[in-house]
Structures are given as structure tokens and as C-alpha cells.
Amino acid sequence: xxxxPDPKSLRLAREETVPVAVLTxxxxxxxxxxxxxxxxxxQAADTxxxxxxxxxxxxxxxxxxxxxxxxxxxxxxxxCCQAQGDMARALRSLDQAxxxxxxxxxxxxxxxxxxxxxxAPLLQAFLADPLRLSRYRLAALVATADCVLGPDGSFGxxxxxxxxxxxxxxxxxxxDIAGAEGEARARRALDALGVTSVGPAAAGDALxxxxxxxxxxxxxxxxxxxxxxxxxxxFASFAMDVPARLDLQRLLAGLEAMASRHGENLxxxxxxxDTNDDPRPVAIHAVRHMVALPRFLDVVSPTAPRAIxxxxxxxxxxxxxxxxxxxxxxxxxxxxxxxx
Length: 340
Known about the structure:
Blueprint: E1 18-25, H1 31-39, E2 47-52, E3 65-66, E4 71-74, H2 85-99, E5 108-112, H3 120-128, E6 136-146, H4 158-166, E7 169-173, H5 175-192, E8 198-200, H6 205-212, E9 235-241, H7 248-262, E10 268-273, E11 282-287, E12 290-291, E13 295-296, E14 307-313, H8 317-331
Parallel strand pairs: 1-5, 1-6, 2-4, 2-5, 6-7, 7-8
Antiparallel strand pairs: 3-4, 9-14, 10-11, 10-14, 11-12, 11-13
């Protein structure tokens, strides 16, 4: 009988985290074309893709079907309508397929949602299920915007507006058809909706960076900004610069209180701030009533913006702006001054 090793000699192996980009966008806006183009790049050979198709198959029959070397299809209805555990099962199926040799090894994952998907439940899945998703981290939510049909059509749909409003970045599609004039119209329409971080689909290596890059520079429009006739948005955003260091515990307690108080109206909150608790900046996220565990960032430029952005329905803006301002003020107050 062999002796057990000395526990002091054991070292925990740190499993490499896998970034996940959620790609959303309205029906026919070019998501699949973008993914197919990316998979032709040699640099993307280690990228796995989950494609969620909206259909009539019952939600109790979750199936994962291989359709290409790097792609699996998740039929069974719109992923955003399924239980959050289904995201964990879908990602776990990738691990199992790779371990069995049915899928090449991968270092990153793209989840292509249905065109009718509200992305908020998918974001919540990453916030609310940290154990089963612990190997995976959300890199970015990216939305495609159709420059041909968007300005006079899809941008007016509530689902499309939610997809565009919650996205970290928006990728303009069909520019080969729309031309310079169509791109300009699309940009004006998106700007009227308060949509930020808009750019054409990148080429080559830059396309990978476009989908997986960290949080972009913060920019927001006031909820009171006027939109041209024919364009109105159900969402607005509010950005706060946060140059001072915050107390992390008070910040998190305040975020929990905000999420509990505003619930569905807190469509998304994200930010990068400095705290008194650690020299590294901290990324914070909340979606509706869910608040993510803070994530310390090892590589962030000292000159990168320190700010918090909240996205919300227009009619909830005043209350959320007031609460966020009060929260930052409270978390930035030195402990010794709290009782004064």
C-alpha cells in the first residue's frame, strides 16, 4: 500500500480561465456572418462557438449538436428564456466534447444568441452561477447593428434596443451594401438612441480583439438628450467619473442595495474603480437584481478611465442617477468621517 503524499508538498494547479464573448443582435443583423468570418482566421482556431437557435423544440430537451469543427448548436428555444443553469450545461458540454476528442482544444468561447434574445438573463447567468461557471469569465457583450435595415426598422424594436443598449461595443454590419451614406445614417440613428462604442467590423487579428477586448472607454448620453424625429430609445445611460479611491465593502453593500431597490430597472451597471483595499483596480458588474463578485484587474493602464456606467429605462433615470451618485459619495467618504 503506497503512502499518501505530504499535504504540504501539494500545490494547487491554477486552471486557465476561458473568456466568453456573448454576441447578440437583432434578426438578420449579421451575427453568423461575423462568426463564420472570424473562424476562417488561423488565429481563431482555438475558438469554440455556441450557436443558440430559436425554434419549437421544448425547453426540457436541451441538446448540443456539433455542426462544424468549432461550432455546436443549442436548439431548444431561445437561450435567454431558459434557466440560467443551461448556460453552465452548454459550457460544460464544450469541456466534455474537447476531453473526448470530439472538439478541438479551445481557449475562448463565443456564444451567439438568437436574434430575439434579451441579453440580460445571459449576463445574469455569469453573475449568479459562479461555481459552475468558474472556469469561464464574461469578456464582453457585443451587438451587431444592421446598417441597411436598422435605421428604418430593427433599431425601433424593443429587443433590439435592449441588445444595443446593454452591449459593451456595437459592430456595424452590411457596410458593403450600405456604403458610406448608409453607415452615416446608421451612426446617426444609433447616436440618437444613446448607443456608444460603435465601429465597423474589424479585419484579421483585430476582429478577435473587437469581440474579446476589455471594457471600452466610457461614454454616455444624458437621458434628457433629444432624439431626431422617428427615433426614440427605451434606454438611457449615466456615467460617473470616479477619480477617488472607494471603500470596497461599502461600495458592494451599496450596489446590493441599488440592485434590490431598482430590480428590473437596473438593466446593467459596470465600472472600473480604485479602492482602498487593494492596489489593483476592481471591475464591478450588476444586471438587474444580481451583483457580481468584484474582480481585481492585474493589467490595467493607470491612465485608463475609472468610472461607473448605469443603463436603465428612461423613466427610471432620475432615481438611479441619484442613488448612484449617493453610493459613490458614501463609498468615497473616509471611515473616520462616517460618524461625524
